[in-house]
Specification:
The protein has one domain: Dihydrofolate Reductase, subunit A. Helix content is 31%, strand content 27%. It contains six helices and ten strands. Helix 1 runs parallel beside helix 4. The longest helix has 11 residues. The two termini are 18 Å apart.
Length: 183
């Protein structure tokens, strides 16, 4: 049975993306890159909403990504990926499957049958859906020491309160802090 986790960058004021759906504010230095590379070695299935998928696909297969962060790029490009979208006709990024309908039921079933764990990257709309459905086992938030004027909260559209238990912390030299929770 696979476990489902969330890994997201957020600002001090709680946004996971700015008003342009961008994460330019994220401070991804050498230490954070090494952490990301280690996390990708777990070989989890990566889950994305369409917007996050398109952003990730526009960067990780590029020569820039391969030269600047080779281990992370290799992990991202080789990972099994699932994108949730009603509009994508074809997934161009290798090892990617599209799920169009009833994403909550599909992930509930995948958790029961998968030998691999699953990790949502970005993708606030599916984080809120899966959290409310009780599907997420752990939450990892990398909080950047920055605040932005406008953005989207990771839990936008949440219909009920969620309470978490802190399980782990890590402080990076950049001032970013990783907080790990279980529900």
């Amino acid at each position: 049975m696979g476990k489902l986790s969330v890994f997201n960058f957020i600002t001090l004021n709680g946004f996971y993306k700015d008003a342009s759906n961008d994460i330019h504010w994220h401070q991804h230095g050498k230490e954070e890159g090494e952490f990301s590379g280690e996390m990708l070695k777990q070989n989890n299935i990566l889950l994305f909403g369409r917007t996050t998928y398109e952003m990730m696909y526009s960067f990780w297969p590029t020569e820039m990504a391969l030269s600047s962060m080779p281990e992370v790029a290799k992990g991202m490009n080789n990972a099994e990926k699932i994108v949730f979208s009603n509009t994508l006709k074809k997934a161009e990024w290798k090892n990617t499957t599209i799920i169009k309908n009833d994403v909550v039921s599909e992930i509930r079933q995948l958790k029961k049958t998968s030998k691999k764990d699953l990790t949502i990257l970005g993708s606030g709309s599916i984080v809120a859906q899966f959290a409310e459905a009780g599907l997420i086992d752990t939450f990892q938030f990398m909080i950047d020491p920055t605040a932005i004027g406008k953005g989207t909260s990771l839990f936008s559209g949440l219909k009920e309160d969620l309470n978490f238990t802190l399980t782990e912390t890590k402080v990076f030299k950049s001032g970013s802090v990783l907080l790990c929770y279980k529900k």
